[in-house]
Amino acid sequence: MKSLLRNLRIILIVFSIIACSLLAGLVVQQKRSQTRLQAAAGENKQALAGRYREAGDILSADDVTLAHSADDTRSYAEDATVAASFLQVVGDYTHNIANTVESNYQGHLLGTDRGFFPQLAFDIQGKGLVGDDVHLTMRADLNKLALEKMGDMTGAVVMLDYKTGDILASVSTPTTAPDQVVRYEDIPDGALFNRAFLGSYAPGSSYKYVTTAAWIQEGLYDPEKRVTCTANTPLIQPDGVKEGREESHGSLNVYEAMELSCNHFFGQISVETGRSAMLEAAHSFQIGRPIKVDQLSGNGGEIDIPDRDSTLSWIGIGQPVADSKLYLSPLQMAMMIGAVGNGGVMQAPHLVSHFTGPTGKDYGGRTVTSLATVVPPETASILEDILLDTVAKGSASSAQVSGLEIAGKTGTAEVEGQDKDNALFVGYIQSEDHPYAIAVVCEDAGFGAGNAAPIAAALFEAATK
Amino acid sequence: MDAANAAYLMRYLIVLLVGGATALLIIKAVRDFSGGMKKNIRPARGFFLMVPPRRGETGGVRSLPLFHTTIIGKKRSCDIRLRGVDVAGRHASIYLYDGDWYIQPMRPQNQVKINGVLISKATPLRNNDRLDLGPGVRLVFVDEEEASARQGLEYRVPYADYLRDLRDRPTRSPLAAVLVNLFWILSAALFVWRLDGDLLPLRPLAMAIFAGFFVIFNLYTLLLPRLFRHYDRLVWLAVTQLCYLGILVQLRLTFLRPRVMEAALEEKGGDVLAAGISLILPQLVALALGLVLLPVVMNLAARTRFLECLYKFCLIATPLLLLVTLLLGRGDETHGATLWIRLGGISLQLTEFAKITYLIVLATFFKNRPQLTSQIRFALWAGTVLFLIMLLPDLGSIMILLPVTLVVYVVMTSEYGTTLAILGGGTAIAAISYTLFPHVRRRLSGWTSLWLEVNDSNRQIVYGLQAVARGGLWGRGIGNGTPDGIPVVASDMVYTVLCEEFGLIIGLAVVCLFIVIWLRGARNMLLVKDGFSSSLILALSSMLFFEAAIVIGGCTGLIPLTGVTLPFISQGGSSLLAKLVMTGALLGLMARRPEMVVKK
What we know:
Chain A has 465 residues and is of the alpha+beta class. Chain A has helices at 2-36, 45-51, 80-90, 101-104, 106-110, 116-124, 140-150, 178-183, 195-198, 208-217, 254-260, 263-273, 275-284, 309-315, 330-341, 377-393, 448-464, and strands at residues 58-59, 65-70, 73-76, 133-136, 154-161, 167-173, 227-228, 251-252, 291-293, 296-298, 302-304, 325-327, 345-347, 352-356, 362-363, 370-373, 406-413, 422-429, 436-443. Chain A is elongated and about 105 Å long. Chain B has 600 residues and is of the alpha+beta class. In chain B, helix 8 packs parallel to helix 20.
């Protein structure tokens, strides 16, 4: 009996250890799965369908319902074009698309992220299961227009307010109907990819204003400086930057060079500015730093220049060659050009303007914060002057809208394995009331002036009406 | 406010009710256990050993107390220490079994003479037997009752009733009983409220189920203590709470799951009530049958020596049940095990009952510290049984039976070395089964890759964990969870649904309730007066705990998942019935006192 007692004591200790580790383990596992398994790939689709039955709405800034739950089902925008244009941003309740409002704002939409006491207050009012409505900064009319203008082209459009950082439009093509994504049927290739936020494009000539900024920052700015264009003869033998055409632009200064988008001029000034100053300018424009768009993420691009002038001259016109890298996301292009319009200050981008709780009370309004000063105001005003000139009488004239002061630059980037070039346009409206910046990328489309700039013009016109 | 939001609001109250009841039970159990470890051990009344004075010694006769298992020898760990030239470290044990006292030499070479006759195995003792354990070491066994009967006197222990009351004051917790029932009434009301729209015809059925079990459980709570003086109220309340949770979850997983209801409706031609009955009937029948059997089994265990008599039957029945399953078993191949037997439309899982018979054999062998030869005999028998289970293959049962066997073995024999060796062997078996059985390998790889990716082998656990995560601390309220999509959600993964709808706090409370049962078992194994009851109580309560721990740990990714049911809660009639029979035996043995047992 004595030994029985002793043995039982030992077993009791063993059992206590097992029981305590089981209890502690359960708490740990719940915490772990709350942080790591929610909104993860491979989530339980059937459970999600049940969960979103009572989820809050997603609304655009112009109060168009983009996602709505009623009668045990969740449906997306009534207008098919609007629904398709918001697909990669709003997402789907089955989370087949990652990095969307539906997946990253799950806690708000389902009302599961509240503190104990606010939740208790809603519970007592009988609204505990109701989720929050999420209001976006994006406008359904602009987004719809952007998608219509993109037509069959693959690419992305991002428009934002450069004073507040609010994203007004963001379209990625190809796209499809959200219901098809929910069913996971007949999805066109690449339709689930948010090109606007996560795409990675060589900026081509639309990068030339950054090169100019680097040149100005290095103290080399001289409006009278002239470079003579040598057409398709490389600037630096044997593989430096050259024109894609036979005729020379002749001798030009920075205004004329930007108007005509002359490669030799910007190749020349980038070599004069030097590799480290070029990199410094790129970094101050936040290239290489991941972008946070509220709870979503964006691609912050990348830049890498080997210590070789011929390659540097290509980077000067936004075209990565050989082992160099220069890739930006459309969102980032819009933020960068917007910073120029905002006197050199880049604002943090926002997608969600505020939430509406179950009782109809708004909360969580977005706050305007600046991300960085990318260039001093003086430099920004020089750049603005050049870019206004480029739209007014230069290569970007197809972006003109009567009555608006538009600054901007087209780009045409060569992509290996594509028949045609990527067409780009970045620009903004110089206005206190309509401080809108835009980036348009059309893949495999040809010239930026012909394809991308008119889309920007149409959106500017619609946005300022 | 609609039913869903009401359930959402009431979840706080439900957590408080279940949490409160569990807290009360566990506090009482722990206090009772820690306060009474030493106090609980009391010598058998009316039986003792007498030491006659040696020649030339002065002083009177000394008497030595006997326990249900008393070890005699030189060592300090012995209950009775004797000095003598030929007395071994552990010389002999005297134990009570089946109402009789036995003496058994610990090793065949230890000299034990009864009235001058040398014995080598367990031998019954009578009043006035002279025990010689070597030269000059003589003890006399005294059975006071027999002695007085022989002299024509009536044997009565003075103040027996008073002493008994003092000793066995029952641990009550009326508040916990009230909380458990409030939980039941509240959740029943919420559940019935949720049955609206198309489900309206199910309301009377649900109300009948809730009311019926409310009456039965409370009848037992009130009545059984009257019938059994030492009825363990804490264990019964813990079991009641677990059963309540089980019925609720099972009703919720059938009635409130459109997918399941639609399938049943199609089968029944659109009759909602018939569909509902067809879904829940097996579970209800098992529960009702189990509840009817419970007092019967309890009575047999407490007042008769029925379980002891079953020993030989169980010795043969255990492998037989497994063999039948092995030969005739059909089941879901996808889960790797074929455990079901169909008998005229009813499918039975005989392995659940084989576990009970196994435990009876285990308890009989280890009712005292058996000799090495009988230990080996048991090892051979148990090895055969475990091998048969492995052939099924039902690794979940092995994961339960092996630790239970070891616990009983180590407590009853103090063989720490051997236990460690067996643990090592178990690890080796685990390694072998890993290489032999593909479904084990799959489950293990699913477990190790749990936090890295979602794949076919871990989807079950990931979905389960997501449900646990969704529940948070307070749960989502009855019927507000989303159990769809989780594989085998009603049986293996039922704990995750419990956590989603009732919250992690109640999830932890469930674990605590199994701890309460174990603690009561451990305490009562010291209180009962024979080794068999002692070891069977330990085996039964440990088994319930291990089974719960393994399935709870498994479906939350703490250990690799094996197909085990959560006692009292999981879907599965055989399992539920077997668990209630086990509870009956456990409660009966705990209530057993020597004076209650019918004499032969």
